[in-house]
Amino acid sequence: MAPESLQSLDAILNTSLTLLAQLQTALTKIHATPNQPSSNTPTLTKEGQPIDAIALARDSASLIRAHTTKLSLLVVNEPFSAKAVVGIVRDLVGGPVPGLASALEECTPDRYTSVFRKELAWCCRTVFIELSGLLSKVPRDGKALSGSKEGFGPDRKGSIAFTGVLWAACDEVTKLANLGIGGFLKIKVEEWRDTLQDVMEELKEWGDEEAEDEEEGDEEDEVDQLAEGLQNAHLSAQDMVDDMMDSASAIPKADPDKIRPRLETSLKRLRLVTILYNAIVKRRIKKLPQLPPPATADEDAQNVTKRLDEAAAVLRVLPDRCGDLACAFYELEPDEIDSIMDQCFLDAFAVSELLGRSWDGGKDEFTEWTDKFQEEMKGR
């Protein structure tokens, strides 16, 4: 094989890997950056319309998948053709790779929401990571990978098995693009709701446990049981921690700090909050206007993405905050319970207020529902 061909292969691989590393860094920053409006002006097509970032991401991911399928076959078949590999890599870095990066540039928060942009950035970053892995395995000595030198995974099944990871990453981009902004947000809100329901169920089960008898005889029995457990080789450290935590967190029968009334109030409100999540999906997410909004959209339509980002920020953090509330209950800390409980339900109020009006700024059935929701929350 001509030395020039190997030199060209070496050069294009080095350039490509450097580019992919830079893109990974940029996309990591996008995913980690707090929600901020973008000042970028959308690039227009020949027809004068903004470029469809979602379609561009889908098409670019599909092309990367197709090109790397060819590449993975070339590197394990004899005779190895450095020229053919160079051609495919050049096509990758000259088309779909920058295309996928451009999709993120066009996927501005003010048109596509920050929450969707961050998810797309993360999916695209994964594609670039896996593509870097594949390119780093391309042989530079002019000999195809075969047998013990194949090196495409612990099971040594070849490039198709290794490339399957990259295919999956490309498929995730396609899946996200096919969902669109509304479909993605629906799934996320339902996931956050499910987490919230899990917290609520755990709290309910904890509250339903019968308070332990604090008589001296029972305490002595408990000490004896723990001592026996320490001698039991089958009792793990985690089992002992769980036993001690369970014992410490039970609500005393006397309940001097009024933990149980607080628990009952919190559970009632948490149930209302989970209903709010369901209502948001049904009455707001499923009835989203066109996103991204057309260039001719009025101010209300352009504010939809801002409202969605503000609501998503609260809906995402509420389950975590309620998890903190559960911990405060388990530790029997009344002041901490009151503080976190107030913040949880202030957040729920804020979301209901933010999404109370329809997307065009008017009142509708959901507006009336949120008014009743707020009244119920106050009354609990």
Automatic annotation (TrEMBL):
Biased composition (Acidic residues): 207-225
Domain Cyclin-D1-binding protein 1-like N-terminal residue range list: 59-208
Signal peptide: none
Protein origin, superkingdom: Eukaryota
Example of a GO cellular component annotation carried by this entry: nucleus
Pfam families the record matches: GCIP_N (PF13324)
InterPro entries: GCIP-like, GCIP-like_N
The protein's name: Cyclin-D1-binding protein 1-like N-terminal domain-containing protein
Region (Disordered): 206-225
